[in-house]
Amino acid sequence: MLIEFTVKNYRSFRDEATLSMEATGVSTLKSVLIPYGGMRILPGAAIYGKNGGGKSNVIRAFWLAVQFIRNAQKTQHEKAAIPVVPFALNDYSASEPTEFSFVYTLDGIKYWYAFSATKEKIYAESLYHAPKGQKALVFAREGQEFTFTEEKARRNLISQVVAENQLFFSVACTMNDVACSKAMTWFREKIYFSRDYSDIPRQLLEYSNDSNMLKAISDYAKAADVGIEDMKFEINSKEINEEADLPANISEEVKAALVQFMHVLSETSNNSETHLKMGQVNATSMHQGQNKDGTSHMFSMELADESDGTRKLMAIAPAIESVLLKGGLLLVDEIEKELHPALVELIVAKFQSKKTNPNGAQIVFTTHNTDLLSMELLRKDQLYFVDKDKEDGASELYSISDFSTRTTENVRKGYLLGKYGAAPNVEIEEVE
After folding, report:
1. What is the DSSP secondary-structure string of 266-290?
2. Residue 61 CB contacts under 8 Å (≥ 6 apart), including other chains
3. DSSP label at 353?
4. Whole-prediction pTM
5. CA triplet 20, 28, 194: central angle to 5 degrees?
C-alpha cells in the first residue's frame, strides 16, 4: 500500500508536495479504512483543480518516477539524460535536483525509498525497510558515495558498476540483492496506470486465456451501456516465424519494424527459434432489439460502433480488476473523461467497499467531477486540491483536512464558491 508520495521541483511543483494516504481523525466512513499496524490507510484519494493548475502533474510525477525506477539499469546508458522536468518559472530551479520519495508497505513490511536527480546525474538516493518493526538502512547515497550497514562487501561491489546517471536500487535488483529485490516488487507488480490500458485489442490478446478477466471486461461494458446484453470475443493468434509470414495488408514501415524486432528477439533469446504472434481480435456486443413482427432478437455490433465511454470503461477494466484482485495502487488521470458521473462513482465505490476490495487496493485519480464532493462516498481526508499561485506560477497540493470544516458542511458548494481554492474564477452572465 501507498502511505505517502512526495515530489519537489517537478513541472509546476517548485516546492515540496506530499500526497498522504494516512487517514486523519475524520469520524465518517471509518469502515472504508485499511488497517496497517497502528495506522489506518485510505483506499483512495481524489485530486481536484482547475485546468492548468497542475493536478495532472501529480500523476505525471508518480509515473515518471516509477518508470525510471523500473528501468534505470536498462535505459541509462553512458551520458543518457535522466527524464526529469524541473520547475521552469524562475532562474534557479533548472539547476537544482528533482526529488521523489515513497513510503509504502509490501507483505507487511514498511519501506522508505527516495531519490533526487538532475538531467545529468543522481544527487541522492536511499532505501530503508522495517522487516523487524524498526526502520533500518539498506543503502544511502550522496553522489557516488555509498553507505551500507549490511552486506557491505557485496553492495560495495555493486556500487562500483553504478553510473552517476543510474539508480543503485535498479542495478542492485539485476544483481539479485535480496532486500532491494523485495522492495522493488511493489514498483514492478503493484502499481498500475490507466494510460497503460488504452488498447482494447491488445488487452484482449493478453487476457485471451483468462475467462474471469474477459467476463470482467464484458461486465464493465454492460455497466457502461444499458443496451448491451453480452459481449463476444473471438481471438485468433498466428505465429510468425519469418518475413514471408507477415500479413500482406500492413505497411512497409510496420513490416520493417516487426522484422527488426524478430531479429532482436532471436539474438537475445536462449531458444534456437523465436516466434512472434500476430493476433486478430474481434469483439462484438450483443444488443436486444425487435424485429418487424414485434419479436425480440439479439443483434450484434462491432466494438468500434460502441460509444467512447463504453470503450473507455472496457479499456480500464483489466487495471481495475487486477488491482482489486491482487492488491496494489491504480493511478488515473481525468477519471471522468468520456465517462458518465455514475460510472465514475461505480469505479470509486469498488475501492471503498470491503466486499469488492478485500485486499486493500488503492486508487488515486484526478477529476473535475464535483458529485464526489457530496461526502456520501469519500471522506474529507480523501479530497485533495491543486492550485497555482498567480504570482510565481508554482502549484500547491493540499488536503481539505487542512481546513477547519464541520462534518455537516457542504463541501461541494464550498468548492464551487472558491472556499478551498483550486476552482476556476469565472463570471457567468445571466441570459435574459
Report:
1. HHH-SSS---EEEEEEEEEEEEEEE
2. 7, 10, 11, 13, 100
3. -
4. 0.85
5. 45
H or E element that contains 241: none
Domain spans in the chain, listed from the N-terminal domain onward: 1-190+327-432, 199-308
Q: What is the model's pLDDT at position 201? A: 72
Task: Give the Cα separation of 329 and 171 in Å (integer).
Answer: 24
Task: List residues bridging with 49 in a β-sheet.
Answer: none
CATH number of 1-190+327-432: 3.40.50
Lowest mean pLDDT among 23-27, 59-63, 312-316, 357-361: 312-316
Written as nine digits, the cell of 271 is 531458444
Checking if the pLDDT of 342 tops 60, the result is: yes
Bridge-based pairing state of the strands 44-48 and 362-366: parallel
* DSSP per position, 81-98: PP------SSSSGGGSPE
248 class by beta-carbon count within 10 Å (0-12 exposed, 13-18 middle, 19+ buried): exposed
Contact 286, 300 (CB under 8 A): yes
